[in-house]
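Renewal narrative, Specific Aim 1. Our central claim is that a sequence can be written position by position from structural information alone. The example that follows is taken directly from our test logs and has not been curated for this report. It begins with the structure tokens describing the chain, in the order in which they were read.
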């Protein structure tokens, strides 16, 4: 590789990982090393499906490694010195963490510790380390409350607890060893090629197949989340390499919508009408799962004061994504 900057992205074959690869290839001249263990959620075909792949693939190197194990000498040599590390590799599905918490501890907490050990021993010139975390570490937000970065951590399911553990691990390495860690806490990300276990692709699939749309909660107790397109996330991470400060936490805020509004918006785009309210067969309200948080909400002032704002609006990027998902050749991503 040449003298250009290099970013190591863990979890690059996952949903957000491949979008941030696209962002880096489009917006910078950096080289990219993707490190991933290719779990059920990792899929290298995502990388080859992005627009700049064919013309820019010479800038990308892929390394298979499972972060549950320490990074070996051989893998260390393959990685070499890098300028930035963006750590996204994780088990990411809450429902799975309710079935078995242990893989979340090993992949997310131990995995982060193994990566930090690698940095401590082999990356003396690292400029920034992004610990990519989630709004869920703060726990449920009562109506009207938007958590700032100094809010208490009250994770309420094993997934978010493992992310909080990983955040603490990263912060401790920043403090003890001077590793330039930045923690980002991001709300719900949407975008093309998301694994179909997640709410948006699952809902698109149900509507296309005239099946029931599962909504957690009841009509009077709807869950609400904030949503942001993965391209905005990529943009923010690139921005932070210049403007972000080590040992700081930055929330990445999206637009708040309840899940029924979102399902109706998807139906409007696909079928030209919202889900039919009286025809209850189209919606199935599930009692909240264990540890279900009714609402997550973040305050995004800190990122704004740093000079960043999301370029893509929720409405435009959301509608465009749904239209993209239902094109025949793209339906394979919801039928995995
Ligand atoms: N999707 C969201 O809405 C959201 C919101 C906030 C934060 N996050 C965080 O963003 C990150 C990426 O989320 P995603 O939705 O893209 O998840 P994803 O499940 O689509 O991708 C995760 C990737 O990590 C890889 N991976 C898992 N364990 C690994 C290990 N031990 N070693 C190496 N690679 C491993 C998988 O193979 C996969 O490619 C996660 O850290 C998640 O906690 C996601």
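The sequence written for that structure reads:
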């Amino acid at each position: 590789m040449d003298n250009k900057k290099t970013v190591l992205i863990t979890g690059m074959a996952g949903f957000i990982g491949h979008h941030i690869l696209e962002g880096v290839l489009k917006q910078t001249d950096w080289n990219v090393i993707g490190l991933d263990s290719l779990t059920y959620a990792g899929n290298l075909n995502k990388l080859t499906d992005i627009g700049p792949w064919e013309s820019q693939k010479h800038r990308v190197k892929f390394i298979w490694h499972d972060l549950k194990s320490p990074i070996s000498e051989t893998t260390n040599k393959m990685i070499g010195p890098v300028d930035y590390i963006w750590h996204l590799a994780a088990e990411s599905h809450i429902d799975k963490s309710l079935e078995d918490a242990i893989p979340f501890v090993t992949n997310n907490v131990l995995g982060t510790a193994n990566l930090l050990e690698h940095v401590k021993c082999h990356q003396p010139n690292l400029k920034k380390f992004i610990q990519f975390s989630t709004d869920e570490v703060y726990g449920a937000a009562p109506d009207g409350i938007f958590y700032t970065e100094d809010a208490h951590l009250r994770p309420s399911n094993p997934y978010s607890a493992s992310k909080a553990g990983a955040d603490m691990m990263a912060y401790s390495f920043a403090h003890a060893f001077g590793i330039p860690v930045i923690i980002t806490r991001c709300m719900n990300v949407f975008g093309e090629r998301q694994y179909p276990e997640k709410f948006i692709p699952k809902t698109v699939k149900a509507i296309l197949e005239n099946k029931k749309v599962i909504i957690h909660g009841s009509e009077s107790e709807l869950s609400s989340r904030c949503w942001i397109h993965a391209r905005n996330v990529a943009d923010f991470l690139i921005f932070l390499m210049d403007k972000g400060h080590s040992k700081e936490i930055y929330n990445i805020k999206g637009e708040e919508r309840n899940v029924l509004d979102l399902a109706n918006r998807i139906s409007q785009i696909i079928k030209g009408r919202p889900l039919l309210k009286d025809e209850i067969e189209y919606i199935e309200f599930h009692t909240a799962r264990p540890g279900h948080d009714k609402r997550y909400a973040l305050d995004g002032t800190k990122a704004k004061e740093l000079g960043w704002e999301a370029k893509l609006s929720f409405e435009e990027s959301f509608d465009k994504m749904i239209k993209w998902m239902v094109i025949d050749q793209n339906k394979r991503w919801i039928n995995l």
